[in-house]
Amino acid sequence: MRFDIVTLFPAIFEGYMTQGLLGKAIQRELVQIHQHDLRDWAPQTTHKPVDDKPFGGGPGMLIQVEPTVNCVEAVEKKADQSARRILLTPQGKRFDQRMAEDFATSGRLMLLCGRYEGFDQRVTDILEPEEVSIGDFVLNGGEVAAMVIVDAVVRLLPGVLGDENSSIDDSFSRGNRLLEFPQYTRPREFRGHAVPDVLTSGDHKAIAAWREQQSLQRTKQRRSDLLRDE
Ligand code: 6GU
């Protein structure tokens, strides 16, 4: 799967892409991530501004339509495959596991990261991206949100996790709407806190029943909204 990330701060992604599961997935060529600096599409050659004040007044600066549309159109031509266009904004549809599963079925995502007060509305009118938010809070820019989406999508791609860490049992995944049960590893006791006896009993049926009950209890206590029918 290919990700194209359009941003004013391409360096934000560099460390993230070399580490952990994502770093491995890129090395194994299961995933390609390309960052594109919006400033490279600024019309002027010397100062290269890509932002300006909003018409009608108001605080902050907007990212301009011309560099954004030119950038997206040029980047799309860099591969044969068409891209699903996603614009990161707190005004977007809320990202969730179901959306991640849907994105994971498309071969190519183009992620547009806003900064300042956002993009000129004509970016949306012309490019018709899907507008996506990662939650009800405001970030300084879409870059962290883009990383969240890449992270959630990549671990769903075939071959990325390996069988021993399948994502099928994850909280929120299709057919699982419960939070995960608590887990323990060695030592069996630390500062008087012991591992629950059932987990060391060797009784696999009892362990499964305990975990199911713990998942249900946690979900009721912490996220009862997950138990209501959609
Ligand atoms: Cl996608 N962008 C920004 N700037 N803030 C956000 C967000 C996105 N999602 C939640 N807050």
UniProtKB/TrEMBL annotation:
S-adenosyl-L-methionine binds at G114, I134, G135, D136, F137, V138, L139. GO terms for biological process: tRNA N1-guanine methylation. GO terms for cellular component: cytosol. Residues 1-228 form the tRNA methyltransferase TRMD/TRM10-type domain. It comes from the Bacteria. Its EC number is 2.1.1.228. CDD domains: TrmD-like. It catalyses: guanosine(37) in tRNA + S-adenosyl-L-methionine = N(1)-methylguanosine(37) in tRNA + S-adenosyl-L-homocysteine + H(+). The keyword Methyltransferase applies. Keywords: Cytoplasm, Methyltransferase, S-adenosyl-L-methionine, Transferase, tRNA processing. NCBIfam families: PRK00026.1, trmD. Homodimer. Belongs to the RNA methyltransferase TrmD family. Specifically methylates guanosine-37 in various tRNAs. This is tRNA (guanine-N(1)-)-methyltransferase. The gene is trmD.
